[in-house]
Specification:
The complex is a heterodimer. By secondary structure, chain A is α+β, with helices and mostly antiparallel strands. Chain A has ten helices and 19 strands. In chain A, a hairpin with a 2-residue loop joins strand 10 and strand 11. Chain B has one domain: Folate-binding fold (2-Layer Sandwich), CATH 3.30.2270. Helix content of chain B is 23%, strand content 35%. In chain B, the strands form two sheets. In chain B, strands 3-4-5-6 form a four-stranded antiparallel sheet. The chains are: A alpha+beta, B alpha+beta. Chains A and B meet through strand 12 and strand 16 of A and strand 3 and helix 1 of B. The complex binds flavin-adenine dinucleotide and zinc ion. Chain A: One of its GO terms (biological process) is tetrahydrofolate metabolic process.
Chain lengths: 417, 95
């Protein structure tokens, strides 16, 4: 059923008893053309675009828990395309363009809100860095503005403008950036894929990858039995190494936990996405009124979906130092997600050395904004056998070849990206 | 939780005093093949479970340590000075 204002009215008259589930709960078939491991944003968007754009519908998404239980439902929902490097910027800009048309495309309200991102800087080096970033965006045809201190003050008057150590000197501003309701993204893609024939199979953990004598992948062992496939596509985010090991893949990935926080509901007070250049703190306000914020990784490798208190303290100290008024609001919840941190902070969308095995990983803490383009480019690769133009730098062998995409210039130290 | 790390030199100290390098991988000989160096620099085992890691006690004795830890439960099993760890590794290899 297509969702529309009319369908809401019609269902209201019948007491809302006729709504159908948004996707089926099918039993796994013995064999699929494509199996996708991981029902996060990237797995589901890959399935959606495979079916919608490339006509491949005999597809299953296998999710060990329920869809949206991973990072797609744990992130702080920021979307933007303010990258520097040639390997990244066109990709993230395609993603932002897809976000702009997504709700009409998959007929689901994902609450895409282009409220703008303000990346603050507090010293000359910070300004140079952001000027360069803005220039790089403009070279790639993406609008950016460098705001003066007064312009920032007019937009966000509530910051600590008398900060002794980190005075606000200005900001890089991308107006088209914003936030999206993350659960709705998982649900919208799931529904759109399901409508086109894709089987979304929840509570189905992949426990092994079966290969024939030539080494070619032929299917997966799962908690619900063996399921055969022609092509196997991994989109397991924080569990990429664990799943990759099932096929003997050696990967440039470390798993780390990132925490996020939400305050009690407040009246609208923060109208943009804000990032603090004196630390890693960032914040926005959800439509329900909760302040959604976070900062750095916990710094040690982790597969636990929760973090430790020292990071909570650090995050909130940073926040209060930038926005003193925050000290009066109460934190309602905090949680963690397991990030697939790559060696250069950039993702991988590629084939592997193993026939029929495709890999999508390395999203670090920036993969939510990538969800549409990641699915589109991964589907393109799976369907056509060649990389999409904008993801052509995101190769698995780039480290070996000396072509890392190191946006932050930090080197092969994942906890610093 | 890995909130306290027992440094062999300084005793039980809060984790925030340390900086973390990541999993212990033995450094190849300078003339080792390119492939070996590539794997040392870029590839990680990234196990879900027990792992040995390099930690640096930056706000303490400034010694490098090897911390054996569980990446899922965050339980710490043991902490050794990295030089002592290396010596025992070399000795094991020789035996
Ligand atoms: C706290 C936090 C804040 C973040 N903030 C932002 C942000 O503001 N903006 C942004 O762009 N990005 C952000 N991110 C990053 C973003 O959420 C991730 O990069 C992205 O969601 C990862 O892709 P995914 O949605 O496919 O992952 P996931 O949703 O984690 O999907 C992977 C799925 O694979 C499943 N799986 C794993 N192993 C198996 C198996 N063996 N068998 C079957 N299924 C399996 C998992 O259960 C999981 O559902 C944030 C992340 C966190 C944790
Ligand atoms: Zn010490």
């Amino acid at each position: 059923m297509r969702y529309s204002a009319l369908s809401i009215i019609r269902n209201a008259f019948s007491g809302n008893r006729d709504w159908q589930p948004a996707w089926r709960e099918p039993e796994p078939k013995p064999h699929y053309d494509v199996i996708i491991v991981g029902g996060g944003g990237h797995g589901l968007s890959t399935a959606y675009y495979l079916a919608k754009e490339f006509g491949i519908t005999n597809v299953a998404v296998l999710e060990k828990s329920y869809i949206g239980s991973g990072n797609v439902g744990r992130n702080t929902t920021i979307i933007r395309s303010n990258y520097v490097l040639e390997g990244n910027e066109p990709f993230y800009e395609l993603s932002l363009k897809l976000w702009e048309g997504l709700e009409q495309d998959f007929n689901f309200n994902a609450m895409v809100s282009q409220r703008g991102i303000i990346n603050l800087f507090h010293d000359d080096a910070g300004r140079d860095h952001y000027a360069r970033r803005g220039n790089s965006m403009m070279i790639h045809g993406v609008e950016a503005a460098l705001l003066s201190r007064d312009e920032v003050k007019a937009l966000v008057p509530y910051l600590n403008y008398n900060h002794a150590r980190f005075p606000v000197m200005g900001a890089l501003y991308q107006k088209r950036a914003g936030t999206v309701r993350h659960d709705a993204v998982a649900w919208g893609y799931a529904r759109g894929a399901d409508m086109r024939g894709v089987d979304i199979i929840q509570n189905c953990e992949v426990t092994g990858i079966r290969r024939d004598a030539t080494g070619k992948v032929t299917g997966v062992e799962t908690s619900r039995g063996f399921i055969g496939c022609n092509k196997l596509a991994l989109a397991a985010a924080g569990n990429t190494s664990t799943v990759g090991q099932m096929a003997g893949l050696e990967l440039p990935i470390e798993s780390h936990v990132l925490q996020a926080f939400v305050s009690e509901g407040l009246k609208p007070v923060i109208h943009h996405v804000l990032t603090y250049g004196g630390g890693h703190f960032y914040i926005s306000q959800s439509d329900k009124g909760g302040l959604v914020f976070g900062a750095s990784l916990d710094f040690f490798g982790s597969y636990a979906q929760h973090g430790n208190l020292a990071t909570v303290e650090e995050t909130i100290e940073e926040g209060v130092s930038l926005i003193p008024g925050l000290s009066r609001s109460r934190v309602l919840r905090s949680w963690g997600g397991v990030m697939d941190m790559s060696m250069d902070g950039s993702p991988i969308i590629d084939r592997t050395g193993i026939e029929n095995l495709y890999l999508n990983c390395g999203w670090c803490y920036g993969g939510f904004k990538a969800t549409p383009a990641s699915g589109f480019c991964f589907a393109h690769l799976i369907a056509k056998g060649v990389s999409h133009e904008v993801s052509r730098f995101m190769r698995l062998d780039r480290f070996e070849r000396g072509y890392a995409i190191d946006e932050a210039g930090k080197g092969p130290q994942p906890n610093l990206h | 939780m890995a909130s306290l790390i027992t440094c062999p030199h300084c005793g039980s100290r809060p984790k925030e005093e340390f900086s973390i390098r990541g999993e212990v991988r033995s450094r190849p000989e300078p003339a080792a093949p390119f492939e070996t160096w590539y794997r040392y620099v870029y590839v990680r085992d990234n196990p879900k479970g027990r792992q040995k890691e390099y930690w640096h006690h930056v706000l303490g004795c400034r010694r490098w340590l090897v911390v054996e830890r569980d990446t899922l439960t965050h339980e710490v099993y043991g902490v050794t000075d990295a030089a002592a760890y290396r010596a025992s590794e070399v000795k094991e290899a020789a035996e």
